[in-house]
Amino acid sequence: MVDYHLFFEFDKRNGSFRVKSSYELNQYGDNMEIVLLNMCMIYDPKTEKVLVLDKPIKEGWEGLTFPGGHVEKVESLYDSCVREIKEETNLDVFDLKLKGIVQWYEKSTDIRLLSHLYYTENFCGELIDSCNEGRLFWMDLKEFIDVKEKSASMDEMLQVYLGKSQEVVFYFTDNNSEGVKFF
Q1: Dihedral angle sign, alpha carbons of residues 75, 77, 83, 84
Q2: Which of 48, 76, 88, 95 lies at a CB distance of 3.0 to 4.6 Å from 67, suitable for a disulfide?
């Protein structure tokens, strides 16, 4: 069985879309795997605290972060975030605002992780103490900004959450050197 996908390419010259097959893209080395992710800063304006997830050592994402996860097939980005928050925290969230995007591109594997960063102050339900991802607790936003035990890339993502940037891109090369760009 042949794995065959269709992609759309925008032609700037005539303002139209052209359909390209995965076969065509692979011929020119233009195909890359894209993994869609989400994350949500849940802020309680009454207490000025954010909901924090303390992840144990696992796949390089250990440390303090916000809840989130993967987008499933036929699921919108927004709905995936709502689902992930429910699964990890037991909270129902609504009125999520898209704050920006963070990307990680690994040249050696040609994989791009693309995470949509959401924000909300609207939630209800009974928060659980922990989930399969780690321990959950509320932390003062100012304290979270200054704490050293955050997950990798969290300081850069905070630039998006705090409105200082709309997009962050991390580039990893074959020799493991890293570049970061803010937009």
Answers
A1: positive
A2: 88
If one counts every other C-beta atom within 10 angstroms of the C-beta of residue 33, the result is: 10
* Tokens (6 digits) for 13: 């010259």
Instruction: Output the pTM of the full model.
Output: 0.80
Q: What is the pLDDT of residues 64-122, one digit of tens each?
A: 999 999 999 889 999 999 999 999 999 999 999 999 999 988 877 788 889 999 999 99
Alpha helices, H only, 15-73: 22-28
Q: Could you tell me which of 84, 81, 123 has the C-alpha nearest to residue 101?
A: 81
- What's the Cα-to-Cα distance from 154 to each of 2, 73, 149, rounded to whole Å? 39, 26, 10
Owner of token pair 């037991």: 90
What letter does residue 86 receive in the DSSP assignment? H
In this structure, the number of other CB atoms found within 10 A of the CB of residue 96 comes to: 22
d(CA 39, CA 43): 13
Amino acid at 57: I
- Is residue 144 within 8 Å of 151, Cβ to Cβ? no
